[in-house]
Fold this protein.
Amino acid sequence: MAFRPKLSRRALLAVAGAGAAIGGGWAAVESVRRNAVEGAVLPWFKANSQAFDPARLDSLWSPAMAAQLAGARIIGLGEATHGSHEDITAKAALVKGLVASGQVTALYLESNAPGGRQLDAFIAGEPGDPAERLRSAKVFRVIKSRPVADLLGWLRDWNRTTALPVRIFGIDCQATAQDAASALEALEALDPAAPCARRSVMDTGASSSSMARPVSTRCRPCPSPPPPALRTRTR
């Protein structure tokens, strides 16, 4: 026999009221926190932001912005939305300004390392059409856009005449097996004397019809530790 608890209308209203009170209290707390954060950062934005003409995204780069970024070692380019044409076009304009002013010699993209190497080879002088090279590169689809293709062509032309060529690197580890093997090989090349544990990584490049197989890296096995020294006790 099933037991069905009976709740009065008053009890239900009390539970609903308590939930609303808790939710309203949480919303009030969040509102206070948000106002505190905005109050701290908005003055900085107002003091350091640069106006530009939305109809001319190349106006994003200006001498004032160049002066603000002078001496920076790492410059991050964010976006209001992920993959919109306007944001990508704006970032491409900023990259051109940073490169032309001599403030940037390396671009780090949200892509895996193999895709970054493909784009780096193209701007280093590889022949072909920028749009076609970008279309075949192993990078995310969000990167495969006309503004990025135009930027690749511009960077290739820049590298042909400059004394400080620009490089492209992919830093989003998606092909984990390849990235791990490359990292361990680089570590061994930099410090051959360092002991390196033998490791096994999953081959993410295996086809869907085959089982993923472990791939041993080229690291040498760690040498066996020497036996502990014998200690004698004298009385």
